[in-house]
Amino acid sequence: MKNILVVGSLGQLGSEISLELRRVFGNDHVVLTDIKDDTNLDLIASGPFYKLDSRDGESLDKIVQKHQIDTIYHLAALLSATAERMPKVAWDINIGGLMTTLEVARQRKCAVFTPSSIGAFGPTTPKIYTPQDTIQRPTSIYGISKVAGELLCDYYYHKYDVDTRGVRFPGVISSMTPPGGGTTDYAVDIYYAAVEQKHYTCFLEGDTYLDMIYMPDAVNAAISIMEADPSRLRHRNAFNIASMSFCPEDQAAYIRNYIPEFTISYDIDPVKQAIADSWPDCLEDYAARVEWGWKPKYDLNMMTKDMIETISRRKQNVVK
Ligand code: AKB
C-alpha cells in the first residue's frame, strides 16, 4: 500500500485531490498538510493532518519519515493574480516550497507530483492548439515560477532520479473549495452569481478564450499520471492537458440554458486581463493522451449543469 503526503491539502485543488486519494488509498495512508487548519474541518478530521509551511523542510522531513511516505503531491502555491501583487513572496512560496519538497523527496526516495499551468506559456507561444514542446516566455511572475518549477522537476529527475511528474492545469472549476487569486477564478464565481443574483460582473472581456477543466477531470489527471507506467512517460513534468476552451460570453450562453434570465456585464481588471491575454486560447494534449491515456469526461454543458445543480442544492439546504 502507498503512503501519500499532500502539501497544500486544503486549497481548491488540494481539498478534492486529498478527498479522492483518501477514498482510493485509505484515510491513514494519506497524510495532509497545509499552512492553515481552519477550513475543510471534515477533511482534516478524516485522517492524519499537520499544520505546515511548505518551506519548512525539517518538519516536512520528520512527517515523511514518521509516515514512511513514498509519494508527495506538492500543491502549495500562490495563483497568478495574487502572485502579481507580491512577486517576491510568490517566488518564495512557489519555488522555495517546491525546492523544499524536492530535497526531502531526494533524500527519502519519494515520487513527486507538481502542478504546472497554462500560465507557463506567454505572448510569444502559439495561441491555438499550443504544442506540448514550444516557446515558454511567460510575462507573469506566476508563469515564470511555473516554468522554473517544470525545469527544477526535470533536473531532480535527471540528476537524482527523483520520480517527478506533472501536468499543466487549465483554469480549474469546482464547487467544494473556492479558488483564490487566480485569473481564471471568474469561471467559478460566475456560477455562484448566476444561482444567487442571476447576474455576474466579469473581470475579463467577454471574448477572452482560455482553457478550463472541471474538478473531477483535474483530480483524475493528477492521480492517473502518478499511477502511470513510468516507462511510457517521455515528457514527465508538465504534460499539456486540455478539456474545454471557452470565453465568458460562451459560458454565459450555456448558463442561460438553465437560468434563462441570467445576464452578464463587464468591469475589466487590467492586471488579470493582461495575464489572460498572454496565455494560450487552447492547448494541444496529444502527448498526455498517448503517454498515459489522458481523456477528460466533462464538456462545458455537462459542467454547467453540474455546477448549477450543486450550488442550487447547497443553497436550498442552507435556506431550510
Ligand atoms: C490561475 O488563474 O492563476 C490558475 C491557473 C490557470 O494556473 N487558475
Describe this protein's structure.
The chain is of the alpha/beta class. It has two domains: 4-171 and 215-240, NAD(P)-binding Rossmann-like Domain (Rossmann fold); 172-212 and 244-280 and 298-319, Alpha-Beta Complex (UDP-galactose 4-epimerase, domain 1). It is 46% helix and 16% strand. The chain has twelve helices and 16 strands. It has helices at 12-25, 41-45, 57-66, 80-85, 87-108, 141-160, 186-196, 215-227, 248-256, 270-278, 286-292, 300-319; strands at 4-7, 30-34, 49-51, 71-74, 111-113, 116-117, 128-130, 164-165, 167-169, 171-173, 199-202, 210-214, 239-240, 244-246, 263-266, 282-283. The strands form five sheets. It has a six-stranded parallel beta sheet, sandwiched between helices. It has a three-stranded parallel beta sheet with strand order 6-9-13. Strands 10-12-14 form a three-stranded mixed beta sheet. Helix 2 links the parallel strand 2 (30-34) and strand 3 (49-51). Helix 5 runs parallel beside helix 6 (141-160) and helix 7 (186-196) packs across helix 12. The termini are far apart. The structure holds 2-amino-3-ketobutyric acid.
